[in-house]
Amino acid sequence: MNGDREGGDESVKMEEVREKLAFMWGYLPGALPQRSPLLSPVLVRLPSSIAAGSSWKDVCGGGCGFAMAISESGKLITWGSTDDLGQSYVTSGKHGETPEPFPLPTEASIVKAAAGWAHCVSVTENGEVYTWGWKECVPSGKVFGDPSTGVILEKDVFERHGSFLTEQVSPRCQGSRSTDGTVSAADSRGALPCLVTLNPGLRIATVAAGGRHTLALSVSDIGQVWGWGYGGEGQLGLGSRIRMVSSPHPVPCIDSSSFGKDRSAALSLGSMSSEGQGFRVPGNYVKGIACGGRHSAVITDAGALLTFGWGLYGQCGQGSTDDELSPTCVSSLLGIQIEGVAAGLWHTVCISADGDVYAFGGNQFGQLGTGADQAETLPRLLDAPSLENIHAKTVSCGARHSAVIAEDGKLFCWGWNKYGQLGLGDVIDRNIPSQVAIEVLLGRVLIGGDARF
To answer: Which segments constitute the RCC1-like domain (predicted)?
Structure first.
């Protein structure tokens, strides 16, 4: 009511409230009989256990044969069925195709989550991180649950490492089984959620999951990147080919001098690659992270893109096929403000503040969207007719396919399509961005290994 008017007409401003919908397509075992792929988008319903009237909050992609999303109430929802090795059961927590809440041992709301090939990681509203899946992807911390009963309980099975880094001959953690067939603590680390041990006061804002490594971006120390897992190709940005990092470590992305004295100690584990390039990386902190199969990418607040890790197909965008062991600025994109980045198994796609799309790396299935199948070792601006007058806002990559959502909500996909993961109604690969026919306008898309969600 307007307090300065007496009588007369009263106007009420109504805001349209739109329910957030989730769709899936591609390969999700159990979603259709005979494990048939979903060739076109299918609406995903919230589980009945979630309060009536609730909605979806975010989608988190998926791994091999499973999918994840977050409900408006902060519950992590997973679905998908097991493959022959049982990995989807380990990561999604169930065999059925019906979405259900994942049993995380916390009442705190989940705000972010990500899935690698066969491991998952989530962030709570309190900045805590839980991870589960393949043992080699799970760092030291508290494991919750009894592998023999499935009952959630807290079990501190790992001693605090004296060093951040643990060198191992094999990247796979060696668990053991007792003679009576029970699972040892080392084995239980993979199948059960693990609360990642962080430095005191450290709060994580978002996470990214790669093939066998994880990156996390903290909020408590203004955009510091942390990493753990396998780093044999430099994907953890330590400046070396260390095989396994068993605890979160700081990844030196920005010159420590730009942060003052309190940052110099945190970044002492590595040196800036920009020193060798003769210039300082633009920006004061990292605002975005992405993990590919064996490489990583970060974006600074100034819009600079840095890459590191496996470079065999040019996926680091440095004009060569060399591995990058430390975060290295993609110099050919300097002067272009990068707003979003995603990484696949062999390729990388990023979008600029102007809505342009750039791609580089492997292109065996057309995943770069250039209209050809040649790899690109430098970022290539996509000029496909389908993207003309399109302002890209969101980008995502699967192992061998890519997607962007435009400012107007239109979705474009391209790359490998053996399992219908492009959502185009067939199984034909595309080497240029193709619009997906969907009845609603989208705001976010995340891609799993062979599925899109």
So the answer is: 175-437
